[in-house]
Amino acid sequence: MPKGDDALARKRGKVRRKRMRSSENAVSTRVAAIIASKRRRKTGKRRGCEGMCFSLPCPEDPFNERHGKKRRTEDAADTNDDHEKKKSKDSKKRPLERATGSNAIPVRKKETEEDRVEYDRPSKFLVVCLNAIRDGAVASEEDGGGIHDSASWGMELWKSCAASPPSDVLDTSHRYATRQQTAWLVSTACDIVARKEKLGVVVSCPFLLYLVPSQEKAVQVRSMCKPLKSLGIHSVSLHPGASIEHQISGLKSCEPEFLISTPERLLELVSLKAIDISNVSMLVIDGLKGFMDLNIIKELRSIRGTISGDAQVTIFSGQCDQSAATVARNLLHGRITKLTTNDSVASRSAFVTQHVHFCTKEEKTSKVKEILEHVLENHASKTAKVLLVAANDNVAQKLSSSLKLEILTVNDGSQGSTFTVCSSMGLINVLVKGCESLATSGVEEFEIVLVADLPPSFDDYVEILTRTARHTVAGEVHVIFSKTDATHAKPLADVLANSGQAVPKLLRQLMDKNHS
Predict the structure, then answer these.
(1) Are strands 352-358 and 418-423 parallel, antiparallel or unpaired?
(2) What's a single GO MF annotation on this record (predicted)?
């Protein structure tokens, strides 16, 4: 007997749901239910109770998010004894004990190493969130294009946030995060939340805390997060533009996954115990220079101290000075990854200080020794890693041998080009490399680079400069400059000037002499 259209549609839906459940990119049950409800509303196929039940806001539900329905815990409080009273919001987040029988509730588990294997690539849900933000911007007649154009930056951000343990991010692109960067950041947070819920891991609320310096910025970020509500991600903005009583009432009625706030208002609400931010998993500081201009760095440090130390932190700083580097170093506690969408040398080498040392060709070895002793003195409290760049591998070998003879307190490493300088002040590990083998030396891992011989092409020096200290807040590049490097005087002076650093007088004289 041939089957009707309704029976065929039900069969296709059953196969589709089975495929989605077995897919590695399947979303959590809560998110899937929200997506299904939205699809029914769009097609006009509502459930029997939908569209016929009406309710009004009440003091317990001012935003009418429960549609007149009581919480399950409230029903239990009305019918059960005193020992089965209404559970607090904190108790909802505790792991559920395993029940017995056929209706047993699965235990919410903690994240394990096996679960983290799934974080090797983003899920399809991240793209769904990006598209929702883009479509929401287009619907509000704003610029929603170009979100996917920042895919390379977004993927690097996702790798840092989803790593185990996560890596803190210091972005030096612009003074504040662009719309594209904000879209990728909140979508990354959505992806991580969905994965954790799929694995049954308890997700604390708020999961993401997005700090902004002004009310206008808070409204802008909140408008970008608003389209994510249909996907099960709720966001709330807190700023001085609304009364604190209204915000306290709103926070009592919902548990937002994302919280966008100014530091002053957030600390007020924390002091009143209206919200708990100690378990925040991701912290974003949008516009470090803006916070410094408003003189609210003390508030930022207070908020950072309230949050647990293993939270992933992302700071948008732009090209700032060394005072900003000190602030960023106090806010970032773990491994750091520097990112930028700006191709300028100043942006890619932000927080890296360049030092130019002048000497003759014959004095080069003694000058290198002097710089190493200076580094040893300034980094006495920790072990410093120094990359020493020579003209080629032969020169590198000779320079390494000369330094071992001149510096008495030396321990040879496993390789002839590696040695450790020890003293009562501390120690430094030195790796000597020629320009040809820099690609395999991992310049990004070094906080200090000493260029004993400038490469023939100045672009190679720029490559060294922009790759230095990619996993630390600040770095140093020492350049030994002699008369044989006079052709590089002007480009080096331009790089220093564009980076906001002083150009030495001797370098200006060499530059003027070449032009005359």
Answers:
(1) unpaired
(2) ATP binding
